[in-house]
Predict the 3D structure of the following.
Amino acid sequence: MAVLVGKQAPEFNVKAVINGGEVVDSYTLSQLKGKYVVLFFYPLDFTFVCPTELHAFQAKLSEFESKNVQLVGCSVDSWFSHVAWLNTPKKQGGIEGVTYPILSDFNKEISRDYDVLNEALGAAYRGLFLIDKDGIVRHQLVNDLPLGRNVDEALRLVDALQFTEKHGEVCPANWQEGEEAMKPNKEGLNTYFEPEKANA
């Protein structure tokens, strides 16, 4: 699998469904420059784990937006399928109420460019990419088909990226917003572990 972290995120220009049902002919990554982007791939519309993920992202949409993050979903389904799924109630396995953009990667080009395409299935693995305001990939995660993602972890990574950009410090394991970070040097590490020494 290609490691895209630290590289320019591959551009895309495809049809997408936005605002819960409106089809646009051209949705591009470049139009989002100046925003952070969480681009996530899911295998297929009208499946089982997928609607739980899409609704979980929708439930946290306002938190992402408050951090200047654009959520973007993507699958290899047609825009017709996306609209039909958006018109299907949640209790029937649909994603009615989801409002962030969903890309139609009908030619599988985006999935290949981000190297998340399961060629045998013809659909994407559960890839997630955190892209910064300059279009650089700062985090990537790929789950196998049965494994749903943790939306709170995606938010935590946004917080960590924005913290380190603002303060120049680095975020240790399990860091949460509001917790102590550390200087990226030996002295910073020693200072971070000082409370442990005191309690030893």
The longest strand covers residues 22-28.
